[in-house]
Amino acid sequence: MKILIKNPNVVSSELEIPKVLDVLIGEGKISEISQNIESPEASVIDAHGKILVPGLVDVHVHFREPGQEYKEDLRTGSLAAAAGGFTTVIAEPNTIPPIDTPTRLRRLLNIADKKSIINFYSKSAMTKGMMGHRLADIVELKEAGARAISDDGNPIPGHRLMRNALIKGKEGGILVNPHCEESAFYRERILRQREKCGHQSFCLQMPYSSPGGGPYTSEAGFIKRDIELAEKTEARIHISHVSLAKSVEIIADAKKRGVKVTAEATPHHLLLTERMAKEIGPNAKVNPPLRSEEDVLAIREGLANGTIDIIASDHAPHSPEEKNRHWDQAPFGIIGLETTLGLVLTYLVRPGILTLSQAIEKMTIMPARIFGLNVLGVGTLRPGVKADLTLIDLDRKWKVDANSFYSKGRNCPFNGWELHGKAILTIVAGRIVAKEGEIIQDNQ
Ligand SMILES: [Zn+2]
Question: Which of 34, 38, 46, 117 is the most buried (most CB within 10 A)?
Fold first, then answer.
């Protein structure tokens, strides 16, 4: 079936400035982009006044399958993505069990082929069992399809291990994607090591400078260490969910020195503060935690000036029962696939923090490039590539209602917010999968 999208304002990295064009889709691909296309057999979508962009890409999501399907699964995660305008996601490997062997990765990708209505990719664990002791077989994992290696939720404790991961990553063309954050797992490990070896050897290698110390020291400390190791090994490194002004500074300095580092920020770290978290409650409990107003401003500035390359949601669903617990008992995480675009348009593009083109690039071509998906046509809008497209209505006003989400998670700190701008059509491989935020076609 052919689809002709008439007169949208096309925003993509192929065009220097947004331009009103027609886009013809046939056999799952973009067949033509130009003015005044005629195609009598195509079904026509009048997109006058709307924005057409390459399908949105989110390189940091948790779909919880296998192991915690009560929180989310490959099906519901993909529905949430499609409803929010995303056509491609990359999942984190911290499932139960973690994705740390080629067999597990292949099995996951096979299941996703059947259950996901969007393009699903996965990272693999950096270390076996995500335990931070021994590297996983990362070359084999890359061959099995891993888009990057990440021990989501845990930084890599030892210097030497991180260095080896970077050397292997460079040799095998694998993106190393550390999670530079404080984690309970890591804290316990330090305490155990301290008991074993005293304060002098192993522990002092760790960039956890204040004993029992604050998250501030650990995020920026890990980023600094990992960037310095990437610089020495000349490896490529991508930093997840940057949350501190100090981290932005370290990354900016590294970029000036020519280190091959890229970074991402989440909507919640761009829009919410720790003070707001206290008012919102456990739905705003997340790792890295929400920070000060100064930090939020620094993240926004870093995003605008290119220090932070991309926006990623870190969509992390939990069951309402888990998130309704007392703050101390509730798990970390915020969902984001169904709110990210609206939040970015309302709070970053409308006030002029990012231009529309900048925002779209940070959610399409740039994440695709960092994770090597651009070579498959992801994040691009040109004839011959797979027709993954998102049509956006910048004028659409809507109210966030977490109860209406396709995600199983309800842990959304933006519930009730009024947003301005929405994905009104999501097209995957030439097929309309969501319209007006509703899933309209089921490929199962
Ligand atoms: Zn994550």
Answer: 117
